[in-house]
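Journal club prep — side note

Before the paper discussion, L.F. wants everyone to see what a predicted structure for a comparable chain looks like in C-alpha cell form. Sequence:
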Amino acid sequence: MTAPVLVCPFQEELLARLSGRTLVITIDDVRDIPRVLEKARLHSIRVHCLDVRTRLPLTSLTVSEEWRGAPLALHVSELGRFREVVRQLALLKQLNIRIYLPLSAPAGSAGIRILSSLGVSTAVDFGDAKPDWDQAGDLLAYALFGLRPHAPIEPFQFLISQYDQHQETDFGAVYFDEPAKYPHVNSDGRIALGRREMAKGLFFAESIDEADSLLSEAAERKKHERREKFFLMNDGCAYCQGWRVCLGTFAHTRNGANGCARFFSEVMDSIERFRSLRERKTELWQP
C-alpha cells in the first residue's frame, strides 16, 4: 500500500515530529513559502505540496522567484485586475502551481477561464455554501470542449482520466480530501480523516504511529458509513444519477433543489462524449 500524504499546518515542532514523511503543508501567507521549504529540508520532509490559503486576490500577491521548484496549491479570493495578471504571467507560467478560485468570487468562472486560456493551471473552489451550478456547468463545457488550447482545469482534468462509468470516482484528492490518501494532522499530532472531521474534532488516531495501522480500516469504514447514510434515506441522493461522482459531497447544498444532481449527471455525460470524440478516428477522403 502506498504511504499516505499527511496534511498538516506549518509548525516547526510538528514538522520535527513528522520527519521523513511526505506532507501537504498548509499556510496562509505566501511570504512564508521560502521559510517553510527551508524547514522542510531541515527535517528531511518531502513536500508533496504547499497548500496556501490566502483571502487576497491573486493580483494583490507578489509572485516570487523564490517559489520556483515548490509545488503550490494557491487558493485566492478572486483574480483581480487583469493587467496585473499579465504583468506577472511569465513567471506564473514557469512555476509548479495550480490556482484555486471560488465560484462565488466576482467573475469567478471568468477568472478561471482567463487564467487557463493564458496557460496557468486552475481548479474550481466550490466552497462550503451552495455553488452556482450554472457557472460550474459553463466551466465544464469550456474545460472539455473549449476550441482553443488552454491549461487544465480541475477537478475536470482529474475526472477525465479517472472516471469509470461502472464504479464510483472520488475527486476529493484534488482538494486533499481523500481519507485513504490525505489524512489530516492537527497541531497536537492527532489524526483525522479529512478537513471536515478535523473541524469537528473527530480523530481516529492520537498519533501518526497509531494512524499507520488504523488508516486503511478507518477510511474504509467512512466510505461504508457514507453510503449507508444516504442509501438508507428516502431522499434525492439515494436515487441521484450523479452519485457515482458527487458521492453525497454536496448533499448539504440541496435545499430542495437538485442543481448538484443535474451538474454531476452532466459531468458524466460530458466525459463520455469527450472520450468518444477523442477516440474517434476519421479518414479523410483522398483526391
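L.F.'s comment for the group: Residues 208-231 form the longest helix (24 residues). Keep this in mind when we get to the figures.
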